[in-house]
Amino acid sequence: MAANYNAAPILTVDGLKQYFRVSSSFTVKAVDDVSFKIYPGETYGLVGESGSGKSTIGRSVIRLYDPTDGKITFNGMDISKKISRADNKSLRTQMQMIFQDPMASLNPRKKVEDILGEGLDIHHMYTSRADRKQKIEAILAKVGLAPEHATRYPHQFSGGQRQRVGIARALIMNPKLIIADECISALDVSIQAQVVNLMKDIQQETGTAYMFIAHDLSMVKYISDRIGVLHLGHLLETGTTEEIFDNPIHPYTRSLLSAIPSPNPIVEKTRTAETYDYKTSGLDYSKGTDHLVSGTHYVKCTDQEFERFMNR
Question: Could you tell me if 97 and 181 are in contact, meaning their C-beta atoms sit under 8 angstroms apart?
């Protein structure tokens, strides 16, 4: 199922700010004035270096953190402030998260059937014990695991299998949006390909939207429909995968893309990575506004910076 850009966005983030007060005199501005939309059936990739605010955005959207400011609208509900009990129940079933470390996010004392069935138990999403067992076995089959895996503990699986359990736990609630927080970074490259292909197949089948958080640009290019580039808590550039990779505008985006190694040894030998340092760049992220480049391609900068970028 392809992304439906004619439908209303499943998620709208408008001016999100997430600050953490460290002391009376110091506050970390982890996310500062970030806005984007995700449409039904779409994969929206968030990329940036470590500490840029990618995971913080994901945790703020799913309300593991209370946003400092801004508005988050999910499936027509404003979830940025205090949520009613009915809206909270809807949010917990329709939005799920796949965490980076499958071993840390799975309860080591519970069998897989109880890990997967926990959400079903909380929200009473089955009619009988037989129905619960059938749903667990069906979701295990969907992620490529066998029914007998239901009685095993997380430590009895490989890393790739544990991540499949994490994906199954998210999918069993039949969500409309899944936040994948660097869900493949701890896996071997061959297993990464298996997990990403599994996610693409499931998206084709169910129409689930993904917020795919990663720093592996080649994998983001493979799975994403649109991409947002984060740096120091600011969303600097956003557009379709082709727009970002074929025509990067912001110097930070260009420096990220220039660092991707080439599989061709001849090209790799002559590749030069661009350097970018915010302190010496002369740019001021806090004063930037969205400038339309073409289609859905936006760059956040001042008018003078935009003119300089376009005439480089």
Answer: yes
167-203 pLDDT per residue, tens: 889 888 889 999 998 887 777 777 788 888 888 888 8
Helix (H) or strand (E) holding 290: strand 289-294
Q: CB 218: neighbour CB atoms within 10 A?
A: 10
Tokens 């199922």 belong to: 1
In the beta sheet, which residues pair with residue 209? 177
Question: 100 or 154: which carries more pLDDT confidence?
Answer: 154
Q: Helices in 155-290 by DSSP H: which ranges?
A: 159-171, 189-206, 217-223, 241-246, 251-258, 265-270, 278-281
Angle between helices 112-123 and 85-94 (to 10 degrees): 150
- Of all helices (H) and strands (E), which one includes residue 308? helix 303-310
Q: What's the mean per-residue pLDDT of the chain?
A: 89
Short-list 305, 301, 280, 304, CA closest to 290 = 301
pLDDT over threshold 60, residue 1: no
d(CA 142, CA 137): 9
